[in-house]
Amino acid sequence: MSQELQQINSLLTHNLSTVVVVDGQLYEVPLEGDDKNMCLIVNLPAYFPEEPPVITISPTGMRHPWIDGDVIMHDGLPSWNSQSNLGLFVKDIRTEFAQRPPAKKNISESLPTQPINEEGYSSRPPPPIPSAASNKNSISMSNLEYNTISKLSFEQIEELLQNETAFDIFFHSLDRVKNLKAFQEDLRNGNEQLAHKNLSREDQLVKLRAEIENLHSQIMVDKLVFEEKERLQQEAFNRFSSSTVLTRLKASVYESDELSESVAQSFLDGNLDNDSFVKQFREFRKVYHLRASKLERAQKDNLFVS
Question: What three-state secondary structure class fits 101?
């Protein structure tokens, strides 16, 4: 097993929550604490483990004695060699941050202070992502670039300083830059594959959306039908409500009384004989007294309380 794979296995073994972002190059190690989004970003350079790893913290703008410009400054990094243990290094950093969690910088601390030269122009700002943890380990991390430059003649170096095109060609020929461009290309290809995967589901999504719209239309129709049936049901309930039954019972009592009175008046007017009068008057009064008895009982016992 190569030394690089041994270092990666050590990282995964001593830090079980490690997430592989780019296999063999970029790893994310979550940190314990209140901020669940805080994590370490372990970047393995092209010549790892001869070169030390670059370990940064996310999110940026954190304050801690071990953090310098978002880069972790571990005491073991300046003396890093191929026999060092990456997993124990990262575990040591996690332990330190668990005991003394990094804090977010305030606005005044986050603003860079740039000296002003005599001509009134500010000095060139530092790059957004440092290439080393400190001045000490930056020398070891840039040995390969230094060796490449040291092999150039004075005229070639002068050409790089004077000719921007030549400098760009030399810069893009560096292995570190090539690796970064390859990493960006991998990310771009991954995003493109994800986009194609999403586009491949467009027809399915359109079909599902159409089905949802049809179901929604059917639901609206069913809702109208339900509301109409509910209205008819309520009307039927109202016909047999307590107040309605009581009102109809009172009306029937009054109606029976009126019918019996009209029969009596017809008898007095000579329009009915004795037998017919007795028969009709007795039937109407019987109905009247039954209905009046029911009405009295209902009112007494509160049988129809709305």
Answer: coil
Q: Report the alpha-carbon distance of residue 261 to residue 268 in Å, rounded.
A: 11
SS3 (DSSP) at 240: coil
Residue pLDDT, tens place only, 23-75: 888 899 998 877 778 899 999 888 888 888 999 998 888 888 888 888 888 88
- Amino acid identity for residue 54 in this structure: V
Six token digits for residue 230: 């509910």
Half-sphere exposure of 269 (CA within 13 A, CB side): 7
d(CA 223, CA 230): 10
* Cα 181 to the center of its chain, rounded Å: 32
Residue 77: both structure tokens together: 């990094």
Q: What is the pLDDT of residues 144-194, one digit of tens each?
A: 677 778 778 888 888 888 888 888 888 888 888 888 888 888 889 889 888
